[in-house]
Write the structure tokens for this entry.
Amino acid sequence: MVGTIIFIACLIFDFVVYDFILRFHYLFFKKDIDAYFKKFQKERTRAVYRYAQIYAGFTIHDESEIRDSLPSSFVILCNHQSLADILVVLYSFPDHFLKFVAKKALKFGIPTISLGARIGKHSFINRRGDFKTTIKELKKLAGNIKEGECTVIFPEGTRSRTGEIGQFHTAAVRVMIEHTKLPIVSVALGGGTKIVKFIDLFKHLRGTQYRIKIMNVYPHPASRKKLKTVLEKVRTEISNQVETWKKEKLI
């Protein structure tokens, strides 16, 4: 518990301090902000993981075997388990700049995270909001994807406490695929079902063993029918991988 409290204290301190640093750079060096933020995001991701590893025994196990075959840009589809999912995915793709489809509540109010997400041109959607507005935001994100950049979508839309893969909501994926023309990369995550809410960090973060595996790379599906087939395959292979980890008692 003490180690976890130290980690959270380090996290809050880091977010507050680097929020000021990021704001300073944004105000006075705005022309270079894109290149600066890409480096910033990578460095802060490594730092946060280092805090979690040292003080809370949090460990990421990357079981990916096809990393060398990844294209320069793609759409990542992965299951959603916990607060740590974004950290784990960011840390596991150091050679790509990732942009997330996030809930609108993250756009303001969280030091470093909110400003960084706006500078990085991530997408903010209201799951209970107007569908047309959501589509507009997703199209905007698709238009902002450059060479070497990727977008991350959690098709379930919400975290799973049991680890079981929920229903995939295809609208966001369809819009992103149709407007980016990018391939799809499926990713399985495991080990985060006990840290769904912030309060869970105090109770269950200590010693968490997180697993991530890049499952497959799919060429850009040129039709909705092909996309539907790919999504079914992605959901099945992620579900099977999570179940395998459970049976082997790795999560």
User: Anything to note?
Assistant: The first helix runs from residue 2 to 28.
